[in-house]
Amino acid sequence: MYRFPWTQVYTPGTWIEVTDSCDLSCPGCFRQQLEGHRPLELIKEEVQLCQKLTNCERIAIAGGEPLIYPDLTEVVAFIAEQGMKPVLMTNGESLSPEYARDLKAALLVV
Ligand code: SF4
Asked: E-strand spans in the chain?
């Protein structure tokens, strides 16, 4: 359930982009690969800035394809540690049962 009205001090969610690389080449994709994987420390700073500016309850992790970002599990854990819900915007191509278990375990850090 959402709380209305959304304001500058309360929004249900926002998103961060951890990479602009992808493991697919969809014909209609508008995404250009310009910088590849972004530094983990910069991602953490952006997570904290999003929380400070919007007081959001969840952060969607997007790309590119976030599952190919090497530190994705740490990003998920970091968002959860800050008291927010991490959500993945993914094509699912690189998801394995082991990777899914690791991501689920990262949420248990809360
Ligand atoms: S999965 Fe998304 S980011 Fe990747 S090529 Fe397709 S539309 Fe683009």
From this structure: 13-17, 58-62, 85-88
